[in-house]
Write a structure and sequence with these properties.
CATH architecture of the largest domain: 3-Layer(aba) Sandwich
Shape: globular
Oligomer: single chain
Number of domains: 2
Number of strands: 18
CATH superfamily of the largest domain: Glycogen Phosphorylase B
CATH class of the largest domain: Alpha Beta
Radius of gyration: 22 Å
Strand order of the largest sheet: 3-4-2-1-7-8-9-10
Strand content: 15-25%
Distance between the termini: 19 Å
Length: 404
């Protein structure tokens, strides 16, 4: 099959939805499909280029005022014209969108005109956007309603709609979306992750980590991740246990979080690694002893699944979809949003009991098996075939003819 994948954020930007689409594209190509990715251009100029083995059409884009490395493509007549040409040249069998703003929405409209099958995966909730752009509180509810309305408008034109968890599907239905929503995990490549601590020792040297138990967070340092909750838990926890908190990632909150660690007098117990290359991530998990996530806007969490695949116990906030990955008392524990005191108690309980850590880590690996990327790819291949079965198309360059 010829599959066009598209998102409204540039391919190089680091976030969960991009992790998903990169994995999807990589494995679809491995299975013999022809894949083209369409995203905003990192340079701002439109044109084809290759990145990490993926052929990409970068749409003319502008810098985002909320994230230094984020690029967005504004809606314009030229956007539709350039995307029309890309579709006519590539002649995809399926267009798979990852979001509902300009690039994906325009491509869905083009697909409808040309009789091309469409699949849409929703990774969005307003909580991903509102805290970052710092909308005035009085406008928050109105903006959230508009964002949902636009999502319904775009995904309502998509043939098959998916989302990564039952929680995400319930949120989408609860927002008023009426189409059928299928649940397919974001998935991870389980073969990359296993608990071999010695193989990650080079990272201890690189980041000057002490010889202590390590609590790890991996992800963007943005407001909805609430890393400050973990930092505020450290003073109480450190009175009873000795551990080191490693924060891997970059984002808008980095400077404020470092200042908070100093204010709490725990900076000697925290390492901010900044960006960690993808090839190093499996080894970073291997030197950790537990994983933590206090984020309240997670529709799944690829980083948490990677930690589980490395046999790590997990401490997670009881919000959004994280409870689907954490079975209380089995592979980890859940704490209330913003509850640093409760998290501190859980940290002490977990890190004081190595038997419990080993048992929970083993259970993590068992539970994450269902998220194997090979199962995910097969599921999407089946959906693409289902979509093709509903649509017959003939695309002639410069002239479209569609038969139903």
């Amino acid at each position: 099959m010829k599959i066009l994948l598209t998102s409204d954020i540039n391919y190089e930007f680091i976030c969960g939805s991009n992790r998903f689409v990169k994995n999807l594209g990589y494995w679809l190509k491995k299975k013999g499909h022809t894949v083209l990715m369409v995203t905003p251009s990192p340079s701002g100029e439109s044109g084809y280029y290759e990145y990490e083995g993926m052929k990409i059409y970068g749409v003319s884009a502008i810098p985002s005022f909320v994230q230094k490395t984020l690029r967005l493509s504004p809606f314009s007549f030229f956007l539709k014209r350039s995307l029309q040409k890309v579709v006519e040249d590539f002649q995809p069998d399926v267009i798979h969108i990852q979001s509902h703003f300009f690039n994906p929405y325009v491509l869905v409209r083009i697909a409808g005109q040309m009789g091309i099958a469409t699949v849409g995966t929703n990774h969005f909730v307003p909580e991903n956007v509102v805290p970052i752009v710092r909308i005035p509180r009085v406008l928050t509810q109105t903006i959230e309603k508009l964002l949902w309305k636009h999502l319904h408008w775009a995904f309502g034109k998509v043939g098959i709609v998916t989302t990564p968890t039952e929680t995400a599907a319930a949120i989408l239905r609860g927002s008023g979306f009426r189409k059928k929503v299928q649940v397919i995990s974001n998935g991870i490549d389980l073969s990359r992750y296993f608990a071999d601590r010695a193989s990650g020792e080079y990272l201890k040297k690189r980041y000057h980590l002490p010889d202590k138990k390590i609590l790890l967070f991996v992800g963007r340092l943005d407001p909805e991740k609430h890393i400050e909750v973990v930092l505020r838990a450290l003073p109480a926890a450190l009175k009873k246990i000795d551990l080191h908190f490693v924060v891997a990632g970059r984002g808008a909150e980095a400077k404020a979080l470092k200042a908070l660690a100093a204010e709490l007098d725990v900076e000697a117990h925290v390492t901010f690694t900044d960006f960690v290359p993808d090839e190093d991530l499996p080894f970073l998990y291997r030197i950790a002893d537990a994983f933590v996530n206090a984020g309240t806007a997670e529709l799944q969490c690829i980083a948490m699944m990677e930690a589980m695949a490395t046999s790590l116990p997990v401490l997670a906030v009881d919000a959004m979809a994280l409870h689907e990955l954490v079975l209380e008392g089995e592979n980890g524990t859940l704490f209330a949003p913003g509850d640093s005191e409760g998290l501190a108690e859980q940290m002490v309980s977990l890190f004081s009991d190595e038997t419990k850590m080993a048992r929970m880590g083993k259970r993590s690996r068992e539970l994450v098996e269902v998220h194997d990327i090979q199962k995910v790819i097969t599921a999407f291949e089946d959906l693409y075939q289902e979509g093709l079965g509903k649509t017959t198309k003939r695309v002639i360059k410069g002239c479209d003819e569609t038969r139903s």
